[in-house]
Amino acid sequence: MAFPPTDQKSAYNFEAVRKRIATQAQDYFEPQLIEMGFEKTKIEAQSLQELRQNLDSINEAIKHPESFGTLGFSISAATGTVYITQSKSDALFEIGILPLLLERKKLILERIRLLSSNEKIKTIQDLINHVEDEEIKRNLEKEVKDLKNESQGLREQTREVELEQNNERTKTQTELARLNVELFERKTKVWFSLLERESASTIIGGILLLIIILAQVGSIFTKTTIPDIFNNAFLIKLGYFFGQSTNK
After folding, report:
1. Which of 203, 208, 202 is nearest to 230 (CA)?
2. Within this chain, do residues 67 and 180 fall inside the same structural domain, yes or no?
3. What is the domain range of residue 41?
4. Which of 62, 115, 120, 201 is the most exposed place for a label (fewest CB within 10 A)?
5. Which residue ranges traverse the bilayer (predicted)?
6. Is 196 in contact with 93 (CB distance < 8 Å)?
7. pTM to 2 decimals?
């Protein structure tokens, strides 16, 4: 699958390519995520106990992201398009499953925080409705304290995940920036090789000849008369190019 060429002058195009690559990576790794139980819809439907088990599983997966393989991308020197390649030798940069694992871990943490808070609040409300002695009040205080501690711990884990996500995003942006530079260098080499094969006068002459031909064709449809100087220039240019081909 190929993507439109990146453009160093346009941040919009740069961001668009990054998003397309991220989408393609998700399509590639999603079957593995589903197999491990990290599908978004499944996470959103899990109980608190299931979410905690899933958190342990995804933490193990995050320790070894390389075991899930990588998706390689390369660039066409002719068209400047970015495309997926199965050959590691052709890949200019690779994307792994880690950004997606971090995204799903963040979702799991948010769900645990939501369900845990709701369940504990319900427990506290039940205790309040039946409170009769000091021991139960102490239990209430403990429940509130546990709720705050767990909520704080989940917030800290979420911040850590967000930091890792930013690091992965920066890596991808750095790779795309390098890809832009390489694309520019390849295009420059193409132009230099053209200039090495042909003299500047030949290239300029070809452009002028094309303009004259277009003017001649346009005069036919518009029924206008082309000045003699254009006709003479046309013949001179043709003679020049025939002379060049004869010399070669």
Report:
1. 208
2. yes
3. 2-194
4. 201
5. 203-221
6. no
7. 0.60
